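Notebook entry, structure prediction.
Reason for the run: the old model in the group folder had no record of what sequence produced it. Starting over properly, with the input documented here first.
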Amino acid sequence: MAVTKTEKWADFLATFSFNDIPAEVVQQTKLYILDNIGCALGGYAIDWGKKVTELGRDLGGKPEATVLGSGDRLHCANTAYVNGKLSNILDMDETLYNNRHIGGVPLFPALSVSERVMGTGKDIILATALAYDFAARSGICGSSFRPDPEQGVTVSGNASMGFNTFGAAIAAAKMFGFDKEQIINTLGIAGFFAPGAIEGKFVFTPPGNFNKYGDTGWFCQSGVMAALCAQNGYIGDPSILDGPRGLAALLGAPEFDNDTFMANLGEHWYIMEAGLKPYPLCRWFHTGIRLLKDIISENDLKPEDMDRIIVNTHPLAKTLPTFAAADKWAESEGKELWLAVDSITYALACTVYGLTPGPEWVKEETLTNKNIEEMTKKITHGEHPDAIKMSAAWSGHPGKIFSQPPTSIEVLSRKGRFTAESIDIPGDSWNPRSKMNEGEIVTKFRNNASYILEDTQIDSIIDLVARLEKIGDIAELTKLMSP
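New structure, fully documented this time:
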């Protein structure tokens, strides 16, 4: 009898050990961990972070794992919810190939369960890297985007972020030390916790909301719950990754690339290609921010110098209804967080005023700042003339079709006209021209953490994560993550 994909994945996950991970993957995973801890601390720094933390206190439970920022101690599943949700509030968390938003989902279930089982730094690195790899493979192989010779790209209206539920479950299962059968059960349970095709609802029917394209806290919590269910004897679907009614259907995938999903497990590590974010907004718009920032710096432009800014992106970044609504920042009645993180006009205005990317961009006083609002009226968002042609001609993996969309910017100012153009999205680890180096990742972490922690704590966290594989008790790290 042929071995199923579910069995192959479970066997790989159960038997793969820390010593099997290449050194460069260990290093990349540590930087990814530091980045996501910083995103969670930055999320806690604003009002919405406090609301999430209050919900965690209401959920409560056995005090076995630490909430970042507040220092609250909750049940590990509830802690995973709060920390996972905090990490996504700023929308500064990782997004792969400008397509699949994985963020901190692989980390926070591992971190919360590690405190329950007294796990080590090696355990955290292993669980995080494996969980990310599954989420990345399933996410891109079931991508809702496909190249089209006439439209450039087609978009499925039935997309789901359910791959993150599986990733979270894998992280928890590895921390619990599950064998093959327990992992099969965990995956089989996680499939029934995964969300439906809600990503399409978010994209096509504005206004947005605090849950965005899928609740990252729920991904983390439900993943831990799946592992706990398996630990307590629940039996999951043993073929959840297989067949037309398995993983592919759960993701709402018009097609599913089974070959890439299974190829080179333990050899090709997708965390090496993670898209870390320098700016707190949708990754579609990062190239425009970087281009404008460079023009401002090179020409010493001030807000009062600006007459008009024209930014051109891929048409989908302008025409998808949620993005189109966010573009009209000045016209929106409620200047909400979730509108800001999808608005290129708002983000460019923050850039013009030199605001530091992070919590400062989405604090209440910034969201309601009249200068920012007036600047957005000078910004026009259009369609890049080459974008459709480039998408239509795409010959790479469909899950990577938006990995290098063209962006151009034109600034009309009192000091002259300035233009720039690029296909490189800042923060893409797979692209040497745009990869964030270690110093940039640390600087981002310092800024996000500085709203909550003292410099000495920040220094200690950076040091501990840098040598995470040598930490015998993860509590040595988590105890530093609140004032």
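Summary: The first strand starts at residue 65 and ends at 66.
The old model has been moved to the deprecated folder.
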